[in-house]
Design a protein that fits this description.
By secondary structure, the chain is an alpha/beta fold. About 35% of the residues lie in helices and about 25% in strands. It has 10 helices and 10 strands.
Length: about 270
Amino acid sequence: MTDTMTETTTGTATDAMIDVRGLDVTFGQTTVLHGVDLRLGRGRTVGVVGESGSGKSTLAKVLVGTVKPASGTAVVDGVDLTDADRRTLRTYRRRIQMIPQDPYSSLSPRRTVAQTLAEAIDPVRPRVAAHQDRIGAWLERVGLQPDMMHRYPHEFSGGQRQRIAIARGLVVDPHLVIADEITSALDVSVQAQVLDLLADVKESLGLTMMFISHNLAVVQRVSDEVVVLYQGEVVESGPVEQIYADPQHWYTRRLLDADPGSAGFSLAG
């Protein structure tokens, strides 16, 4: 480990949405995350960046409560995930929403958009009629027409499906949203639209977000803080302006050199 920051500085013990200390995750004989520290205040966005295999998605799975760490602590929204029982996790998972990389595979082809969002609102009794106004309002908020709720996933473009996935995650009024590579399959112009949408929603709702990506230009667009993962370790972290202006770790510099931005994005803002 180099002499870089290993913990985001935003948030205190009382107002942190995410407070991860010394987190280790192992699968068999393989250590996927090692000694990860991360603290994020409520209403902030942290961008978690790294190449495939760096541990980004594993960290997300720990935070949604589907992967147990081997050691260390992970307290999210006041819940200690290293010691939570099933009942606590069921309630907790309603407050933490994951927006997936591939919305098409996560949306049932046999359900309309309205049925999918109604199930998110009430998994026990997913009644479209009872939630129709709320569903329509959220579709409109993400840039779709309310009457589109009666369509099926195959009737939408990739960018529209991603908007539906965002609406499904936000319609339950979550405390924390984790977006996992949600723009990686979209073309550049659609990426920009989706990122602008997330920025608008985050500002208006005061959401706390974790934005996972291998693309530093994308991360800069939406994040307050940046955490750089390399082979399961945090090698650099801090305010987004600092990381981009003066990266300290060679791996961060390599990511910046390899991905200086593309049409529609700018590392300078």
